[in-house]
Specification:
It is a single chain. This protein has about 280 residues and is α/β, with parallel strands linked by helices. The protein has two domains: about 60 residues, no CATH class; about 210 residues, no CATH class. The chain contains seven helices and nine strands, in the order H-H-E-E-H-E-E-H-E-H-H-E-E-H-E-E. Strands 2, 3, 4, 8 and 9 form a five-stranded mixed sheet that branches. Helix 1 packs across helix 2. The chain is elongated.
Length: about 280
């Protein structure tokens, strides 16, 4: 007979925490009676031991449930690319610090993405990088950016920058290699504080079982964060991915999609000196 941790010496004492138990059959009653006698405790002490054991199990489940698994790092096969370029943004009439800064950041993100898009296509056209002839998706993951903002004559900002970006080519073979669990389309940047945050763990645990750190090489600096590939709880087939373009934010096969760092990132990943110029009011000529 299996032995359970029983509570001794309490069942004969008067207690206000009292529950009377009636068994529906003699078999269960005899089993409890014999088990209690075998362990040298009263029937009440034996039942309380069973209840406490169940309470401990439930407590363990509560602790484990929100945890998110961190898997082995993923090494991207495609080589990293660095774009060194510049762009211009027209200075607009001053509305407010918040509104003007929002406008300039939006324009800057758009121009940087355009530069990356053109740079990657140039690499492909000039055969510096080959793409598969079968259905595929290309994620251009911006991992770092550094630069500086200058003011030029003619009501213009001039931004000189270098951006490190990583192409990720997703094919059916790659998708099936991880059985449809690796959600390459939603790579996310996480800090150490995110990984230990209970709120974040509970949020991501609804859809994902864990995350896979991307082994990206930092060129411009170091930080305590990393890009991760989320691991789905329920896998998707390759056919679902190709068909459900709307569910992937309009991503189409053989089209480039740009993700990663933006002006909202911390200075270790997006270090743009002179950004305070975006907050100033200017007299337009």
């Amino acid at each position: 007979m299996t032995k359970y941790l029983a509570v001794k010496g309490q069942s004969n004492m008067a207690s206000k925490h009292k529950i009377t138990t009636y068994f529906s059959n003699t078999t269960t009653y005899d089993w409890v009676t014999n088990a209690a006698a075998e362990q040298g405790v009263t029937k009440s002490g034996y039942l309380e031991g069973l209840i406490r054991q169940e309470m401990e199990r439930n407590q363990e489940k509560t602790i484990i449930k929100p945890r998110v698994m961190i898997y082995e790092p993923y090494k991207i096969q495609e080589r990293q690319l660095v774009l060194s370029s510049q762009c211009e943004i027209n200075i607009i009439p001053f509305i407010s610090i918040k509104e003007n800064e929002k406008h300039y950041n939006k324009e800057l993100n758009r121009k940087i993405d355009t530069g990356i898009y053109n740079d990657f296509n140039y690499e492909v056209i000039n055969r510096n990088m080959s793409l598969p002839s079968v259905n595929h998706f290309v994620i251009l993951l911006k991992t770092e950016l550094e630069g500086r903002v200058f003011i030029r004559e003619g009501n213009l900002f001039n931004i000189i920058y270098s951006v490190n970006y990583q192409p990720i080519v997703i094919t059916e073979n790659l998708w099936k290699k991880y059985d449809g669990y690796y959600d390459f389309f939603n790579a996310i940047y996480l800090r150490q504080t995110d990984l230990i945050s209970r709120h974040w763990q509970r949020t991501i645990a609804n859809k994902y079982a864990g995350v896979v750190p991307i082994d990206d090489k930092k060129i411009f600096g170091k930080d305590k964060g990393c890009f991760f590939i989320p691991v789905l709880r329920k896998p998707h087939t390759w056919q679902e991915i190709v068909k459900n373009t709307e569910g992937q934010g309009g991503i189409l096969p053989s089209r480039n999609v740009i993700k990663g760092v933006t002006t909202l990132f911390n200075k270790e990943r997006f270090n743009l000196k002179g950004r305070e110029l975006f907050k100033e009011p200017y007299k337009l000529s």
